[in-house]
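Dear support,

I submitted the protein below through the web form. The confirmation email said the job was done, but the results page showed an empty box. After a refresh the structure appeared. I'm attaching both so you can tell me whether what I see now is the final result or a partial one.
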Amino acid sequence: MTSTSIASSAPSPVEKSAIRKVAVRLVPFVALMFFINYLDRTAIGFAAPNGMNDDLALTAAQYGFASGVFFIGYILLEVPSNLALHKFGARRWLARIMVTWGIVAVLFTWVDSFTQLSWLRFLLGVTEAGFFPGAILFLSLWVPARYRSRVLGLFYIAQPLTSVIGAPLAGWLMTHDGLFFGLDGWRFMFLGVGLPAIVVGVIAWFYLADSPKQAKWLTPAEQEWLTKELATEAKAKGADDEKGGHGLAGLKAAFSSGRVWTLSFIYFGFIYGLYTLAFFLPTIIADFQEQYGVTFGLLEKGLITAIPYIPAAIALYLATKHATKHGVKPGHIAIPALVGAVSIPLALFAGSPTLTVAILAVTACSIFAALPNFWTVPTQFLAGAAAAAGIALINTMGNLAGFAAPYITGWLADLNNGDYKVAFFVVGGFMLLSSVLMVVLSRQQRVAADEQAPVPAGH
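What the results page shows now:
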């Protein structure tokens, strides 16, 4: 695997100012979009143990299915949506995605049955399709490869912060039972987290720009430098227009790449772990009351749910900082996957709420330390429409894990009378597979590079 590292020569003033402006102007806004996105798709996890499951008479398996069916809708339109973003431009497409998913998210306020819940989750996936890979692609199109680990790390930090901020926020919203037209607290929470998507989506239409050439907040020299650097990288990857890096050719390049498929399975393991935590951590914390005889209020549950994600955000920052300085290495991805594989099954043998949450914090750190660095890998060898299709394909496999993780976890919990130990061993197995595949991919890339290296004279 090629390492992404900052060039040895000192950056010019134009280069430093251009990258700084992109980091300040675009990354926080796209991270805000991601924050709202992740909060809306995981809000069901906060609602489940705080009234929704009881009001809708859901079993653990039904809740798991409703949580996971979101990803089926997402998968159906994932690749087409990302290709549409490449064709029509990120500004229009990301704004369109946000407004439509916001409308669906608000409708959860009035859901009355398992069937309605499942259909709305499916439609939420349909309307959100393409947002995450589109955001990754959008930011990748704004900075040269040597800066992507840093930029994607700043973007990705929105995901653990969603739980750090979003979990207490959801808990606080749910305390307002009956405040708004008599809505139950969990219904009011859905309304409160859905409306911001519509508002920010409208703002995105006017705020974002599709390329450095369209960014009025860059000087002509900064526009020229960014455009030239990005064009040079694209040409080096064989993705310029003359080499057919668009449309069906790009789609074929992504789907026929063994590296893309291997990365897809690696990502599957990480996302299986991520969404098991996202959808079931609030339920596990609620179960502490019965297991250990403790009592938590809604806001307290939200605060406890947030705890593992605080060190996770720090781990994410430190890991991307290290990768930016030294280049993205296989260990930046394989080692966290191994740590997560070991830690997550151990959590449910901890014997106390404090130790359980502490071990799950280690799992969260491992997942978030790896993911931003993972996303620098596809754009090392893909560009143009091939990058759009490749990133979407990898994310599609992650979305399969997003469906499988909550459904299988809920099903295994029902099968074992509410015990999550077996389900968490399954999570550990998938994360272990991710670690092994990353090592295998790295070795294959090293062998291929050695075979292509020129033979020194005299040999």
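Response: this is the final, complete result; the empty box was a page-load delay. Residues 13-211+241-450 form a domain with the Growth Hormone; Chain: A; fold (CATH 1.20.1250.20).
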